[in-house]
């Protein structure tokens, strides 16, 4: 059964637990595992575990499995940490879906038709005693026991048929009372007791929908309730669901958050922690990690606020249940860095597998772990994929049945005993304020801006997200290969020379940051958000720094000043970024005169006159992250505006078009905001059954009631009703200067070949099993692409291909090219891997290319360099005066170069684990290309795959553009040759681009020369 973005119920059913034909057999432990466990209990508890030595003695004499099982239960149930006689459990029939899918909250479950109850389970004799069973087959779950063990909370169906949180006094045995307000269109669930008597729970008051399913599943975020006053305040403002709040021993709240602002949504759940009042919300585990996909029911190890046990599971596939994994975030917070072990799985390394249906086929399956210590856990476990029993498990691979699975599922086991209250953390929130303060000590600290020189970041652009309402949303709802959510620029603030910045921004608002260079272009994109409570001071050490990174103990420039107010973007009120209100006026004023509908019909140029088409005509010239990108931290400047053809065209003076400062600002912001089309949800496409205006109206009401916010993002602040008049640029004056000539140019092919006569190619051993071949390039003169005569005074040897990844690894052993971005959503991997050792090396900056030259030069005892632009163009042409060395621009380049060809259609994909669409429609197949040519590959080709030029040089056109030693403009270096993403005119011999010497560019590599 395939998922549907409409029928979320069908998706949910397809992700329920799979019943095996018969229960699988499981090894409950060996003599060795039991010996280790007993010895550990002796070492840990000493005299409090008096029978330990006797247990070891008995163990040595046992040879029978039944006797071993008996001793296992006796010895491990004697654990002093089991200082209780009963467990609270929920017993339920498995004939009704009772586990939400891994993207859902309880709102997506059937409300009735369940046979479930809360009971006590005796450890002494295994008997159960029912405490509460709801009427009418209503669901109950999310069991929570108070620290004093005198009352419980749970989720069920309340008044008006909405999900609600109930509380029940265990001492009095009275009927449960609903403690969340009875509001028919707001669900409440997943409660957590706080040490000060308040309650945290999840609520759907934000009227948000899960956008990847068209908003048909509802989003619940965390709120805090004071039972004394019944006051409710929203404390999380997240795009997607929050799950499983629980109190850490240090008094903070641990919970799971799901986010996918432009990230791979199958993998982007992470654990967060915060103060109970919602302040200091920070990553706890898993940011930018593909594994674990999900971490449900996480609980801290007693006495530790860093070690935790959780259920690791996937996105699709098995719902909520999964593998039992023990972590310590002091070891690391990324992927498997913090893993202590899988249980069972002693001594086995846990690999961070990238897989959607992560635990399909995994055995056994676990739910609802409750840690007794760092080594011992009570957990629900299933041997058949459907029925669950209660078990005691440990890190030594012992499993003790407490109550084995029967026809029902026994879940959510909690020891019925008092537990120590964590310390009460005082509230830091100041509800009389509307703003919060954000402080970044040094924006260059951390990996987010790795290798970006100090002084590059000039300003910070601050923006927010407006999330999809219920019954609306999707990966193409706001823009084509654009953002999931509406983006609103709140303003900008200057960054100090030391990298520090402090500013005020709205509280109770998801905030994103973009560090900008001197031209206002983003050096990194955040793809996440920070949320601050009213009056809070949010402090960061740097950009994407690890959470355990300590601030430098020194005053900063920002710390010596009052927090700055944001400078309004373009001097106006914040508004959702709309292409039709921000970019269309730029097109009307600067472009429409030449890009009319009539001319577009004649020669196929983009049509910017027709406002229904202009967005779809312009966005193909922008390279961006799209709705889902590589979830790992991106290379700085990966999607910098200068890597987009649109910006490159304008920077080259496109027919004398010169944009004003405001027009450039709008265009760059559009690119950095991930090319949105719509600036409000009212204007965005509606789903079936959508009630956009109603839901947005209710959102505004609850936003004011629970967050004190009085904003209406749907108000159009800058309507574009009267189109701007086109202002024609100055005419391009004809260059009357005659092109220079040379009697030695062009060079006939036979003569060009003869210039290499007697010069056998050189082969250089790089020492790692790879070799590099150099061909002789004679000296000479030529007329360059600008019509000027150039003299190459000395001959030299040039590598016959660009440097391959394999060759570069002789210099940097562990270097990886990384991945290329995939279009669409539902991605099950990082993208298109570019790590074939025969591919050209990419994302090496100019400085690194020169370092390779220095290394190779020392190895060979010769002068190894990057070619100058003159040396490069002379070698590329090999005597040809044509723009491309294989003929003319209109010629078939399929055997000669890897350029943007018909294979680019394969970028139009769909489906889970997206695959190319056969004959894709134009709106999906939009990357500019020559679709009359087939060069055989989509992205990179192995070096040397295409026919060489006359002088034996491969790939001088396409595959990757190449660094040269020549200056470009400003502080940039010249790049020549074009790449797989370019059409022939952008890969012509003299077509150049410029990038900063420290910038790693996705499609730029290099080749080297040896000077004689």
Structural write-up:
Strands 31-32-35-45-38 form a 5-stranded antiparallel sheet. A 4-stranded antiparallel sheet has the order 3-2-1-24, with no helix packed on it. The protein is of the alpha+beta class. Helix content is 14%, strand content 23%. It has 15 helices and 45 strands. Helix 2 (31-45) packs antiparallel against helix 3 and helix 2 runs parallel beside helix 4 (65-77).
List its traits:
single chain; 1012 residues; alpha+beta; Neuraminidase; paralog of FGE (formylglycine-generating enzyme); 5-stranded antiparallel β-sheet; 4-stranded antiparallel β-sheet; 15 helices; disordered N terminus; Sulfatase_Mod_Factor_Kinase
Please give a quick description of this structure:
Residues 455-545 form the Hydrazine synthase alpha subunit middle domain. It holds the Pfam family FGE-sulfatase. Helix content is 14%, strand content 23%.
């Amino acid at each position: 059964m395939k998922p549907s973005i409409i029928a979320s119920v069908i998706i949910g059913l397809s992700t329920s637990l799979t019943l095996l034909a018969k229960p699988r057999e499981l090894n409950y432990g060996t003599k060795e595992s039991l010996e280790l466990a007993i010895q550990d209990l002796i070492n840990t508890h000493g005299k409090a575990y008096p029978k330990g030595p006797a247990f070891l003695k008995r163990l040595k004499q046992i040879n029978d499995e039944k006797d071993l099982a008996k001793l296992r239960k006796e010895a491990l149930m004697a654990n002093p940490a089991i200082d209780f006689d009963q467990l609270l459990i929920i017993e339920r029939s498995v004939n009704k879906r009772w586990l939400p899918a891994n993207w859902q909250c309880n709102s997506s479950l059937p409300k009735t038709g369940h046979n479930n109850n809360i009971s006590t389970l005796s450890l002494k004799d295994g008997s159960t005693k029912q405490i509460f069973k709801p009427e009418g087959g209503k669901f109950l779950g999310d069991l929570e026991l108070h620290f004093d063990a005198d009352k419980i909370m749970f989720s069920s169906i309340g008044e008006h048929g909405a999900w609600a949180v109930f509380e029940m006094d265990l001492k009095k045995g009275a009927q449960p009372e609903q403690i969340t307000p009875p509001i028919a269109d707001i669900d409440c669930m997943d409660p957590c007791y706080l040490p000060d008597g308040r309650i945290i729970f999840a609520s759907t008051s934000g009227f948000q929908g899960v956008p990847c399913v068209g908003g048909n599943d509802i989003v619940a975020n965390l709120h805090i309730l004071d039972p004394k006053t019944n006051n409710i305040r929203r404390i999380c403002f997240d795009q997607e669901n929050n799950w499983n709040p629980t109190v850490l021993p240090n008094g903070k709240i641990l919970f799971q958050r799901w986010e996918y602002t432009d990230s791979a949504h199958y993998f982007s759940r992470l654990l967060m922690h915060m103060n109970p009042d919602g302040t200091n919300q920070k990553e706890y585990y898993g940011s930018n990690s593909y594994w674990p996909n999900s971490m449900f029911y996480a609980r801290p190890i007693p006495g530790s606020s860093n070690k935790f046990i959780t259920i690791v599971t996937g996105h699709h596939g098995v719902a909520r249940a999964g593998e039992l994994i023990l972590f310590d975030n002091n070891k690391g917070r990324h992927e498997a860095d913090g893993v202590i072990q899988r249980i069972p799985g002693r001594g086995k390394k846990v690999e961070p597998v990238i897989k959607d249906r992560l635990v399909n086929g995994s055995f056994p399956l676990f739910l609802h772990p409750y840690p007794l210590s760092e080594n011992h856990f009570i957990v629900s476990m299933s041997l058949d994929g459907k029925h669950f029993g209660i078990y005691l498990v440990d890190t030594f691979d012992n499993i003790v049945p407490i109550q084995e699975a029967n026809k029902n599922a026994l879940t959510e086991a909690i020891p019925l005993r008092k537990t120590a209250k964590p310390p009460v953390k005082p509230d830091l929130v100041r509800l009389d304020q509307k703003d919060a303060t954000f402080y970044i000590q040094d924006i260059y600290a951390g990996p987010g801006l790795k290798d970006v020189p100090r002084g590059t970041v000039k300003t910070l652009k601050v923006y927010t997200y407006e999330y999809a309402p219920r019954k609306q949303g999707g990966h193409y709802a706001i823009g084509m290969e654009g953002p999931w959510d509406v983006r609103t620029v709140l303003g900008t603030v200057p960054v100090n020379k030391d990298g520090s910045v402090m500013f005020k921004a709205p509280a109770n608002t998801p905030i994103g940051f973009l560090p900008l260079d001197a031209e206002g272009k983003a050096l990194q994109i955040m793809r996440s958000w920070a949320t601050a409570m009213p009056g809070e001071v949010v402090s960061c050490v740097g950009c994407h720094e690890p959470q355990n990174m300590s601030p430098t103990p020194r005053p900063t420039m920002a710390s010596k000043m009052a927090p700055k107010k944001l400078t309004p973007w373009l001097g106006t009120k914040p508004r959702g970024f709309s292409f039709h209100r921000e970019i269309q006026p730029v097109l009307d004023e600067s472009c429409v005169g030449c890009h009319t509908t009539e001319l577009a019909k004649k020669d196929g140029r983009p049509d910017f006159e027709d406002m229904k088409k202009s967005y779809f005509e312009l966005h193909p010239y922008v390279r961006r992250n799209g709705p889902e990108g590589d979830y790992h931290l991106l290379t700085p400047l990966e999607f910098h505006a200068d890597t987009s053809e649109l910006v490159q065209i304008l920077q080259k003076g496109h027919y004398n078009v010169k944009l004003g400062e405001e027009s450039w600002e709008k265009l760059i912001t559009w690119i950095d905001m991930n090319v949105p089309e719509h600036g409000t949800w009212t204007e965005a496409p509606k789903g079936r059954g959508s009630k956009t205006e109603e839901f947005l109206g209710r959102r505004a009401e609850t936003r004011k009631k629970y967050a004190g916010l009085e904003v209406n993002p749907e108000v159009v602040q800058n309507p574009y009703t009267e189109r701007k008049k086109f202002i024609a640029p100055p005419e391009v004056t004809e260059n009357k200067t005659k092109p220079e000539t040379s009697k030695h140019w062009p060079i006939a092919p036979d003569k060009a070949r003869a210039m290499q006569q007697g010069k056998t190619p050189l082969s250089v051993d790089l020492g790692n099993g790879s070799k590099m071949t150099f061909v002789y390039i004679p000296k000479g003169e030529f007329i360059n692409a600008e019509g000027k005569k150039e003299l190459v005074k000395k001959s030299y040897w040039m590598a016959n291909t660009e440097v391959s990844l394999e060759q570069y690894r002789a210099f940097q052993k562990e270097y990886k090219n990384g991945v290329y971005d995939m279009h669409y959503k539902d991605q099950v991997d990082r993208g298109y891997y570019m790590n074939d050792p025969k591919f050209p090396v990419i994302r090496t900056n100019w400085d690194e290319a020169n370092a390779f030259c220095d290394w190779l030069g020392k190895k060979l005892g010769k002068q190894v360099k990057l070619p100058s632009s003159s040396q490069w163009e002379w070698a590329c042409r090999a005597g040809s005066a044509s723009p491309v060395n294989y003929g003319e621009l209109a010629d078939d380049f399929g055997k000669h170069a890897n350029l943007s060809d018909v294979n680019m259609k394969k970028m139009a994909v769909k489906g889970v684990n997206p695959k190319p669409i056969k004959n894709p429609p134009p709106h999906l197949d939009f990357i500019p290309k020559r679709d009359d040519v087939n060069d055989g590959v989509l992205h990179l080709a192995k070096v040397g795959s295409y026919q060489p030029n006359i002088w034996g040089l491969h790939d001088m056109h396409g595959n990757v553009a190449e660094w040269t030693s020549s200056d470009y403009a400003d502080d940039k270096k010249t790049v020549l040759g074009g790449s797989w993403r370019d059409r022939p005119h952008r890969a012509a011999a003299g077509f150049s681009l410029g990038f900063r010497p420290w910038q790693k560019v996705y499609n730029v590599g290099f080749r080297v020369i040896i000077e004689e």
